[in-house]
Amino acid sequence: MGRTTVKSHEPRLRADALRNRERIISAAREMFVEQGADVPMDEVARRAGVGNATLYRHFPDRRELIHRVALHVMERITGQADSALTEGADAFEALRRFVHAAADERIGALCPLISQAGDTGDHPETVEAGERLERAINSLMERARSSGQLRPDIAVGDLIVAVTQLTRPLPGDGCAHFDGFVHRHLQLLLDGLRAPARSELPGSAATLEDLRQRP
Amino acid sequence: MGRTTVKSHEPRLRADALRNRERIISAAREMFVEQGADVPMDEVARRAGVGNATLYRHFPDRRELIHRVALHVMERITGQADSALTEGADAFEALRRFVHAAADERIGALCPLISQAGDTGDHPETVEAGERLERAINSLMERARSSGQLRPDIAVGDLIVAVTQLTRPLPGDGCAHFDGFVHRHLQLLLDGLRAPARSELPGSAATLEDLRQRP
Amino acid sequence: MGRTTVKSHEPRLRADALRNRERIISAAREMFVEQGADVPMDEVARRAGVGNATLYRHFPDRRELIHRVALHVMERITGQADSALTEGADAFEALRRFVHAAADERIGALCPLISQAGDTGDHPETVEAGERLERAINSLMERARSSGQLRPDIAVGDLIVAVTQLTRPLPGDGCAHFDGFVHRHLQLLLDGLRAPARSELPGSAATLEDLRQRP
Amino acid sequence: MGRTTVKSHEPRLRADALRNRERIISAAREMFVEQGADVPMDEVARRAGVGNATLYRHFPDRRELIHRVALHVMERITGQADSALTEGADAFEALRRFVHAAADERIGALCPLISQAGDTGDHPETVEAGERLERAINSLMERARSSGQLRPDIAVGDLIVAVTQLTRPLPGDGCAHFDGFVHRHLQLLLDGLRAPARSELPGSAATLEDLRQRP
DNA sequence: AATGAATGAGGGTTCATTCAT
DNA sequence: AATGAATGAACCCTCATTCAT
């Protein structure tokens, strides 16, 4: 119990193949964040230090690459949420830590995933990873909410989207030093999340599921 | 007397040409916000209902188009700031109104400008328009700050970037109903902006000028 | 006898229209020589100081413009040949003068005409002008030949093509100072034309008619 | 020992890639001569029997293609000059052979290079190849000059330009049978080059270097 | 008659993806 | 399994030509 079983029908990769795969995901994550999800595939390959065809062997097309990168990032962020939860700090402090950690984990890289829901967002693996992430964040939020530190009128979807938006890189390669601002803005957001709510919010709280819905 | 004076170096456009020009700017503004500054020019033309070459007649290249759209948006947002200021409401309420109005004016369309500063951001016209915008927002913020409603540790650049980020649509055409959330997030941000500050911000307050700096 | 009658079915042009027409031809002749026959039509119009549509009113398409420029040049060169003939100098000296004069009259502008024979070269007006030119040059050559100064194994076509080639501007805008060499090369050619022939020529003498033949 | 040494910074091309490269150069050489340096790149690719992107893989842009074709032609013509020199025939006869051979090697393809000197003519490789060519031709000319067969008032630049001009095909696809005349005109030129000079030349003798000079 | 504006087609170049080694 | 090479489709931009004023 506890560890999720992994479908084992995928032939075990040779050690070097596995290393290549990881390098590619890593390079892609950085480049998606820095330059957007439309970086030339050849550039990703070059940065990963492999031939372009190797990239395609691992990820048959760009959609698949985006998909895998998103899963990777979701898993890491879920991990961060779990850590924050178990480190037993003050409830809001845990939430705060998580938010900044999510930024550092490049939560912005989820963007293409979310936005191209129809393409990859429906994939069962994604749904599952999303649910795990949602549960983890929910626990964090719930604890903060019940301790009276988090305003009650927001839900997981709000947090994820707002944080994602605030941490998205600007298109183009400008504002490299812009990263410095991100944590300021996150902090402003966090201050806005504290109870008691200082205003009434328009609209209604959103779950991840809501985000995936087609209109 | 009676005739409107026109800067004489710009020969008056024919009525239809002017209409085309405006349509193009309008289409581009929407599309920059929706899809980023790298939308195919031909698509912009199609959406504006003109031939591609007409677009190029009005804006010799993409840089110029971005430039003009940004100027247009800056002017409109400056106008909104001025209105909010003169409508004499409560100081923070004025700021609040402005922020939501800026979202509706597609402040996100400034994004390509900011991010490609080196290309168009240095243009004197842009700098000037930026300064006007900055002054207008500054007045709004200053009033709110001195009335003790706005936390003192943020500057114009913070506001502009945070609002821009929060209002950017996700890439792709997903989440059409996502717009509904934007005003929620803005409101959260505004709550975070209120005095007294609920936490200390990392980094330091940014002016527009800071954003334009190359690292 | 003497003056060729001109077909008068073309409505007399208004004075300003005539001036425009002449300006256009003049501009086109220069630009064909300088930049080749594929200069942008709009540039020709600009250089002529008229709107582009005016150019098209006078010359419905590029072919027509080339055609008219060629006729104009042919006439002027025919004039030069006639002058050289009647100025009564030494026979070879007359030929020499003519060759250099033809260069100055931009005989190179005939190039597009010759090379696109199928398009405009068959036009009766062109044929006629070509024949007049040929007759004029022939007289010059004949005189030089019978005075024993010109080698007998060349014909009008040889001269025209060789001179045209030697005076053609290099494509692109390079070698502006290249014009300086042209008269050197023409002179070398002329020295090669003198009797007695210093070698036997391959191939056979060509008339203008031969040039117009399709293979 | 035994293995051919290769400049190691140019990774050896695969056999098929090398064949493609050569086909492209060959096609481009023909087409530059026939249609000028502004032939559509796609046409060059088609004639070479490769996809357009393959062309761009080998030659990143048109400038590079022109550059490489010019180098190729210069080398071949230099070879012809060397052969003519070593074949030990009569000095002027050697020059004569060389001139006709240069025509057959498409010396006209150098034209775009010369004319766009600023773009590619300054490249050290080009300069070097040009100097080798110049030296080779110079040897030929010097031998003919000192044997009293070549007039002394011309230099390498004169010869190259004059021959290039005379061998350029007319633009367009007209006058296919025109090639037949080229060797006539070259022969006329050669007769003009013989000593004793039959007239005084205007201007002054030009080296290749002069041709590269910007005004 | 003259003009500024509009347009579709075409050429240069890049890139995702497939193929051959 | 990994790679360099090849390819067609797409995009930016220009230009000849037509249209509306």
Describe the structure.
The structure is a homotetramer of 215-residue chains. Chain A has 215 residues and is mainly alpha-helical. Chain A has 2 domains: 48 residues, Homeodomain-like (Arc Repressor Mutant, subunit A, Orthogonal Bundle), CATH 1.10.10; 146 residues, Tetracycline Repressor, domain 2, CATH 1.10.357.10. Helix content of chain A is 65%, strand content 0%. Chain A has 11 helices and no strands. In chain A, helix 4 packs antiparallel against helix 5. Chain A is elongated. Chains in contact: A-B, C-D. At the C-D interface, helix 6, helix 7, helix 9 and helix 10 of C face helix 6, helix 7, helix 9 and helix 10 of D.
List the helices and strands and how they pair.
4 copies of one chain form a homotetramer.
Chain A lengths: L14 H21 L5 H8 L3 H7 L3 H25 L4 H14 L6 H5 L1 H5 L2 H23 L9 H12 L11 H15 L14 H5 L3
Helix pairs in contact in A: 1-2, 1-4, 2-3, 4-5, 4-8, 5-8, 5-10, 9-10
Chain B binds a DNA duplex (21 and 21 nucleotides) through helix 1 and helix 3.
Concise description?
Four copies of one chain form a homotetramer. Chain A has 215 residues and is mostly helical.
Based on DSSP secondary structure assignment, what is the total number of beta strands of chain A? 0
User: Which CATH top level class of the largest domain in chain A fits?
Assistant: Mainly Alpha
The CATH topology of the largest domain in chain A comes to Tetracycline Repressor, domain 2
Please state the CA-atom Rg of chain A, rounded to the nearest Å: 18 Å
- What oligomeric assembly is this protein in? homotetramer
Kindly report the greatest chain-chain contact and the residue count on each side: C-D, 51 and 50 residues
Q: What gross morphology of chain A would you assign? A: elongated
Question: Biggest β-sheet of chain A, characterized?
Answer: none
Order of SSEs of chain A, N→C?
HHHHHHHHHHH
**Helix percent band of chain A:** 55-70%
**Gap from first CA to last CA of chain A:** 38 Å
**CATH homologous superfamily designation of the largest domain in chain A:** Tetracycline Repressor, domain 2
Structural class of chain A: mainly alpha
Based on the coordinates given, report the CATH architecture of the largest domain in chain A.
Orthogonal Bundle
Number of helices of chain A: 11
Whole-number total of structural domains of chain A: 2
Point out poorly predicted stretches of chain A. 1-9
